C-alpha cells in the first residue's frame, strides 16, 4: 500500500448507528473503527515527529531541511522551497546534482513566481518537473511552499498529505522568518542599511587568511566625511541622517559584491578590497571622492556639499589586524589634515598624499 495512502490523516466521523452485537455488520463496523483509530494514531505519531524536528530548527534553511527529512519516507521529492510574499526571505533545498540541479532550480524559480494558491495545487514545468505548491498565512505576511520532483506527478492522496502539513508548518515558518529578521537587524546598521562592525569582525578573518594563503593583494580604505558636523549644525540631525543614507547608497553602488563595506559609526566607513592592490584602490578612492563631492544637501533650496577623506593601507603578511587598522586611521588623519576630499596612501615603503 502506498505510504501516503496508509498514513493519510482521517477526520473524526459521526459514529454509526448502533448495530446488533455479533452480527456481520457489527464486526465490519468494529474493524472500520479500529482501522480509523490505527490511521489516526499513525498520523499523530508522524505529526509529533515533524514537530520535534521543527522545534530544533531556528532559521529558514534549517526549518525546510527538517521538513524535507520528515517528508521523504512518506513522499519522495527532489526539492523543497519557500518564498514569502515580500520576497525578503527565500530558500531552496535541493538534493539533485550537476545539470539536473540547475534545471530543477530553474523550474522552482518559475513555479515560485506564479500566483499564490489558496490551497494545495499541482503544477508542472516543461513536462519534466512536477510540483505541489500552496500558500500559507504567516501572521501579517504570507508565503508560498513548494515541493518538486522529476518525471512523476503527485497523486490526489499525496496532495492531500501535503495539504495537511500546512497547519503544522505555518507557525514554525513564521518563527523562522522572525528569527532571520532579528539576525539580519543585528548585522545591519539601522540608519544606512550597510553591514556593521559585527559583520566586519566576522568576515575580516577569512579575508586575511585567504590573502595570506594565496598571496593575493588586500587593501583597506578608511573613510570619513568632510564638513559633516557643519551640515548637522546648520540643517539639523535629520538632514545629517539623510546625508549618511545617501552617501551609503552612493558607496554601495561603487563596490563589488566581494568587497566588504561597513559603517563603523558616525560618519566613518571602512572598505576592504580583496584582490586589489594600492593602485586599484587609489583609482576607486578618487572615484568615491568625486561621487560624494557631487552630492547636494540641505533644506530650503540650499546646496551644501560634503566631501570624504580616505586613507589607504595595503595589507602585508607581517601586519596584524589591529596594526593594519591603526595605519589606516593614521592615513585617514593625514588626508583630513591636508584638506577636503583628499586621499592618502600609507604603504609599507612610504606615505604619500595622492591628492583629490
Would you give an account of this structure?
This protein is an alpha+beta fold and 356 residues long. It is 48% helix and 22% strand. The protein contains 11 helices and 13 strands. It has helices at residues 3-6, 24-55, 60-71, 98-112, 156-164, 166-187, 197-214, 228-235, 237-254, 278-293, 321-338, and strands at residues 79-84, 90-94, 121-125, 129-138, 141-150, 218-226, 260-265, 268-274, 296-297, 304-305, 307-314, 343-346, 351-353. The strands form 3 sheets. Strands 7-8-6-11-12-13 form a 6-stranded mixed sheet, sandwiched between helices. Helix 2 (24-55) runs antiparallel to helix 3 (60-71) and helix 8 (228-235) runs antiparallel to helix 9. The relative contact order is 0.08.
Unreliable runs: 1-15
User: Biggest sheet: strands, sense, closure?
Assistant: 6 strands, mixed
Q: How are strands sequenced across the largest beta sheet?
A: 7-8-6-11-12-13
Mean of all residue-level pLDDT scores: 87
Structural class: alpha+beta
* Spatial gap, N to C terminus: 77 Å
- What fraction of residues sit in β-strands? 15-25%
Number of strands: 13
Roughly how much helix do the residues carry, as a percent range? Answer: 40-55%
Radius of gyration: 30 Å
